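Internal QA ticket QA-208
Title: Verify multi-chain structure generation after dependency bump
Assignee: T.L.

Test input:
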Amino acid sequence: MPENKEDYLVRFENVQKSYDGEILVVKDLNLNMAKGEFLTMLGPSGSGKTTCLMMLAGFEPATHGEIFLDNIPINRVPPHKRGIGMVFQSYALFPHMTIGENLAFPLEVRKMGKSEREEKVKNALDMVQLGSFADRRPAQLSGGQQQRVAVARSLVFDPDVVLMDEPLGALDKNLREQMQYEIKHIHERLGVTVLYVTHDQSEALTMSDRVAVFDAGVIQQLAPPNILYEEPENAFVADFIGDNNCLHGIVTSETENGCVVKTEDGSEIKANKINIAGVGKPSTLSIRPERVIVNPEPGQVPNVFEAKAAELIYLGDHIRTRMEVCGNDNFYVKIPNSSHHADLNKGDTVKIGWNEYDCRALDATNN
Amino acid sequence: MSQSDTSTLKTADGISLKLSLQRSLRRKKRNALLLVAPLFLFILITFIIPIAYMLVRSVDNQIFAEILPTTAPLLAKWDPLSGNTPDEEVFKAFITDGKVAAQAKTINRLGKRLNYEKSGISSLFRKTGRNLRKLEPEKLTTSYKEALIKIDKKWGQVDTWEILHRESGKYTKSYFLSAVDMKYDANGMQWKDDDSRIYLNLFKRTLWLSFLITFLTVLLGYPIAYLLATLKTSTSNLLIILVLLPFWTSLLVRTSSWIALLQKEGVINDFLFAIGLITDEGRLAMIHNQTGTVIAMTHILLPFMILPLFSVMKTINPSYVRAARSMGATSFTAFRRVYFPNTIAGIGAGGILVFILSIGYYITPALVGGTQGTLISNFIAYHISGSLNWGLAAALGTILLLLVVALYILYDKIVGIDNMKLG
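Actual output:
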């Protein structure tokens, strides 16, 4: 990451956006994107991520604040002068033009010569393995092929930044995964800067250099995928990214790195102090299901509790087990389907435990 | 047992599968037919049969053979180019037939029919009929020819017989000839004199005004349809009601409001005069002329353009234009290259609707068109209810129908009818 803010390609500075003058859809957004970065905005619908994209593309004006592209404030620059490529969820391929004409369109409006244009179109189509489709109409292509054309079209005029607004949302699961890799590879090969919007967390984790998790118009956490998963900074991120177990309680004591949280049923849990308000204040504990140990050796982990297996779901590689522990009946544990895994039946009582480090004490949530 | 041979496929109780399928579908088909039947009958009786009747009527000339049954075949053998009046037997047949017709009082109908060919024949027939009723052919002292010439000397002229000879067949071209301003004379078919030509100019005017009105509705309707398609549904629904409002206003209210607006002492002229744009003598004539027809019809037909356009624009994904803009197109280029081509289907549908409606529009031009703003349909109406020349009205109507069909085919060739979207 660059050190000076001037070295970032895209900067959002104190950007706010409201559509009706009453509700802020984007609240004080500050975000820097480095050149060549693949940054994903991830969040539930209505969290303001698409609005940010539209502001950068120039289709929505920022209500307050400034967006910089290559250190030039672009609030007053019309969309067609921003030089930003865009891929839409609906692909937005022009139905009255062939694939070749679609790709040539951005080059034509730039008054590029015919021979150069044709070469660029051909290269772009080859890049997405659709070299022989130039004369077809969009309607004659499958969803996945149309998506590739849309990606090729957004890149054909060599933009500095490409925005992708849930581009894989309309594809089925297998195709989506395949396209994730393709887009990732294209990004790596061309070194183009990509701002990607999705509500699919696995997509975000697979493709991105960094992920900005959005909720209620605020970036909750901005971090590389592994940090986001392993070290969520607040309860929303912990819950939104991956499987997560939540335990609610009150902080009873606090040390330099750790704290003790007492749940409603009286269990005292030693936790990793991340984001708590202080002793006596409520906190949400986050424990990943795969970090829970079934039948721990005595003294192996500091937190050991009695749990009752309420439901077992066979998922092939692991058995997802819903347990009742510390007053929470929605506590999931992943039991790997190995040769010596714990043989549990519904209703069995078993000891489970986890490390202090793996149990993150975060801000309180209502749920 | 092989199941691949479909002819031997059997249902469980041994009936051929095809037969069984047909039986099971029969009921469905019968129900479908029953549902369609009332509308089909209605259309047949009120639309298809009248149009067929009109087509026949435009060439029909059975009246001659009905009223003068023995004369018709004899007259057909006569050669008008010989320069002589027909033979005695034709005169005899005419007098025999004519007396019967005169007593049945049908001869004047034929006279009226033939009067379309040459004025004066009607009175000739009335006079002849009156005399024939009294005439007793058995007591004739002269030849039949002389007897008839005695009634009126026109019967001794080849011209008179030539007209009868021409119109003695079961079918006639004469209605179509008059419908395109042509006539017969000694040299065969001819254009009428310039000052008596009516219909070709009317057809031209009708076509031109229809094109103009269609063009104006596109010009005015396109932005409105765009607004409707981009606004949120609750607002656009309200606006659609406003668009449809002209339909829901009574014709008389509409007409009188146009008159109030457009007449010489009307609101618009008063306003223009008040702000000094026109002088009192220079007040604009905007009603009871072509301008009036164009303004009123554009107003009335506008919804027929807006609604198809709206429904097409509604389906255009707003991301098309955004995509074009993000790729470097100015908003005008994005409109011209991306948005507009996708609305052509709507323009085509609306255009063909407005054009076909205006080419046959009758009531509005009749009310606000004056003499210069009337269209061909006003003359068709005149011939149906005024002059009672139904043959000519039918011929004019047929030409109008053919024009519409021709334009439709042309449209299909240029734009393609499959591209049309009505909603």
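Spot checks passed. Residues 173-190 of chain A form the longest helix (18 residues).
Status: verified.
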